[in-house]
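step=encode ok
step=design start
structure_in=
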């Protein structure tokens, strides 16, 4: 058995930064992740804080200093949202914080677009919907906001969307992914119909599903299904697809957690 004195234990804790981590607040954790660029720093901080006016003020200062509005979307706004995503993944902040940041991010994107004639290039297009018969759209709205905040062009079909309307939207828009949410167990079976009709048309894109009624076992039963346990998984799945992981089995390996 090791014979450690109290001062030895304290030294080990400090050496491995455990003591510091236990005392660190979310704001302090964010501070360590902000970019050092003096023009980007206030924008990233404002996104973390969910302060839309401060985001715009920071963007105005950066544009005045010579930054191109279109470049600031990737070089400042996305970086700020990246800080938020990292802290959320680490369990330091929670979904309400993320939603405030997403709103601030979207306000920043709209401002940048208003300051230029250039059109920002979206990472990809995603079709989102709530299952047919289900009117509970809070989860879907969060998914849409997070996808847009992460640079995706979203076709939001709304709630209680007929299966054929989903299929038509996919055919028309050619998205990289379709998402579906369901809160009621009586409505989640519409996902199987969406899956089968996509396959009938030879469309084999990932179908990311989640919501209170849905679990991983259910989603795994159909060929295109990829389960998202949390709304924040949607942009991560989309990012994985954009990076080249388009195989359903590979996506399940990455995102199925149980």
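sequence_out=
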């Amino acid at each position: 058995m090791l014979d450690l004195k109290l001062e030895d234990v304290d030294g080990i804790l400090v050496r491995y930064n455990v003591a510091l981590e236990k005392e660190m607040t979310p704001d302090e954790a964010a501070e360590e992740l902000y970019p050092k660029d003096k023009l980007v720093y206030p924008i990233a901080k404002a996104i973390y804080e969910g302060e839309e006016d401060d985001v715009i003020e920071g963007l105005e200062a950066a544009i005045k200093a010579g930054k191109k509005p279109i470049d600031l979307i990737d070089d400042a706004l996305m970086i700020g949202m990246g800080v938020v995503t990292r802290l959320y993944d680490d369990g330091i902040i929670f979904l309400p914080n993320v939603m405030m940041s997403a709103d601030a991010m979207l306000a920043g994107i709209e401002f940048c677009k208003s300051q230029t004639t250039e059109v920002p290039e979206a990472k990809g297009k995603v079709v989102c919907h709530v299952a047919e018969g289900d009117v509970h759209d809070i989860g879907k709205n969060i998914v849409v906001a997070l996808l847009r905040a992460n640079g995706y062009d979203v076709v939001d079909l709304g709630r209680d969307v007929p299966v054929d309307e989903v299929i038509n939207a996919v055919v028309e828009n050619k998205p990289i992914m379709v998402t579906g949410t369901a809160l009621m167990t009586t409505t989640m079976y519409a996902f199987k119909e969406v899956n089968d009709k996509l396959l009938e048309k030879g469309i084999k894109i990932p179908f990311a599903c989640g919501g209170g009624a849905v679990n991983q076992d259910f989603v795994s039963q159909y060929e295109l299904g990829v389960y998202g346990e949390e709304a924040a998984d949607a942009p991560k799945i989309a990012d994985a697809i954009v990076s080249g992981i388009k195989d359903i089995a590979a996506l399940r390996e990455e995102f199925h957690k149980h």
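step=design ok
step=annotate ok -> Residues 184 and 213 are 5 Å apart (CA to CA).
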